[in-house]
UniProtKB/TrEMBL annotation:
GO terms for biological process: lipopolysaccharide core region biosynthetic process. Keywords: Glycosyltransferase, Transferase. GO terms for molecular function: ADP-heptose-lipopolysaccharide heptosyltransferase activity. GO terms for cellular component: cytosol. It comes from Marinobacter mobilis. Coiled coil: none annotated. Belongs to the glycosyltransferase 9 family. This is Heptosyltransferase I. Gene3D superfamilies: Glycogen Phosphorylase B. Pfam families: Glyco_transf_9. InterPro entries: Glyco_trans_9, LPS_LOS_Heptosyltrfase.
Length: 347
């Protein structure tokens, strides 16, 4: 393979996907230490990943509409990359790729291409049978010669963010459980009373419990409902942290509980065990990568009930819809999983 001097990565969103993509980008850095790497990324995602060693971030703010494309084109004027890794098939990302001059334009294989993706690339990653999203990203690294290896992350955290996280942690406790209760889609949220039961169970076992999340009305209301249902109210930090501060807290925690949401993948990148709650999407594809064995999985049973076939006989990535699906995850299941993680991780 010829020497690569300039590489552009195009992955705009979302938080969880970009955290997974970091493992691939850093594998490329290890394989091509001489190459400059530019990453075209969304605004919130850049705020989380800013400071990654050796990465130039170019922010594409989708809220700017057509102006975002004009800004990207101006930023890329006069530049030409040896290779563009087009790691997103959404139409917005495909159109954004037109603003990025590159000789090689590597995208997805035919089976995983959609939204006219094939028209915007001239090379493809290798086909794969039912991969996790992170394994798919690692295929882009493999396309540039990086050896297949377990993913690794090095996401820097500033001293002030680490101090903020330390300041939130309760002293004299057995361990720290962070609950991130809200997903971006309301239907993927578990019931507040059940979160409260798990929080109380953790507190009774000597853990300090923290609620975390963003400042949206949905997240604030869900946190308030959980707090009101607890016998041992957690420390409520919802709406009080930046993404960098949240990452620092997840890294400092001993265990994280979350549904299918970006902070679950942030915790994976931070090296913290995750109990994932999944009913709508296949955790084998989108679950917390390093902690698949700690997923409380209602999806596999529900997808077979709905379609009459197990997930491995259905199109990869098949999702379920419905506001009632999370009801199929019981508080007893999650408390049992909590006990298992505490035992296996010696917490």
């Amino acid at each position: 393979m010829s020497t690569l001097n300039s590489i552009c990565v195009l992955r705009l969103s979302a938080i969880g996907d970009t955290c997974n993509a970091v493992a691939a980008v850093q594998a490329i850095q290890r394989q091509h230490p001489q190459a400059s790497i530019t990453w075209v990324i969304g605004k919130a995602e850049a705020a989380l990943l800013q400071g990654l060693p050796g990465i130039e971030f170019v922010v594409f703010n989708k809220k700017d509409g057509l102006a975002a494309f004009r800004t990207l084109r101006r930023h890329m004027a006069g530049r030409r990359f040896d290779v563009l890794l087009q790691m997103q098939v959404a139409l917005r990302a495909n159109l954004a790729s037109l603003c990025i001059p590159a000789k090689r334009r590597i995208g997805y294989d035919k089976a995983r291409s959609k939204e006219l993706h094939s028209l915007f690339i001239n090379e493809r990653i290798q086909p794969a049978s039912r991969p996790h999203v992170l394994d798919t990203f690692l295929q882009f690294a493999a396309a540039l010669g990086a050896p297949l290896a377990p993913p690794a992350w090095d996401i820097p955290v500033a001293d002030e963010d680490q101090r903020w996280a330390r300041d939130q942690l309760a002293p004299n406790t057995r361990g720290h459980l962070v609950i991130v209760p809200a997903a971006s889609a309301r239907e993927r949220n578990w019931h507040p009373e059940r979160y409260a039961t798990v929080a109380d169970h953790a507190a009774q076992n000597g853990f300090s419990v923290y609620l975390c999340g963003g400042p949206t009305e949905l997240e604030l209301t869900l946190a308030s409902d959980i707090m009101g249902s607890c016998n041992h109210p957690p420390i409520n930090l919802v709406g009080q942290s930046s993404l960098k501060q949240l990452f620092a807290l997840l890294r400092a925690a001993d265990l994280v509980l979350a549904p299918d949401t970006g902070p679950a993948h942030m915790a994976v990148a931070a090296g913290t065990p995750v109990i994932g709650l999944y009913a709508h999407s296949n955790p084998a594809r989108t679950g917390p990568y390093s902690w698949q064995n700690y997923v409380v999985d209602a999806y596999s049973r529900l997808i077979e009930q709905h379609h009459g076939k197990p997930a491995d006989q259905l199109p990869w990535g098949q999702r379920l819809k419905g506001h009632e699906l999370m009801e199929h995850i019981s508080k007893e299941q999650v408390c049992t999983m909590f006990d298992r993680v505490v035992t296996e991780q010696s917490l």
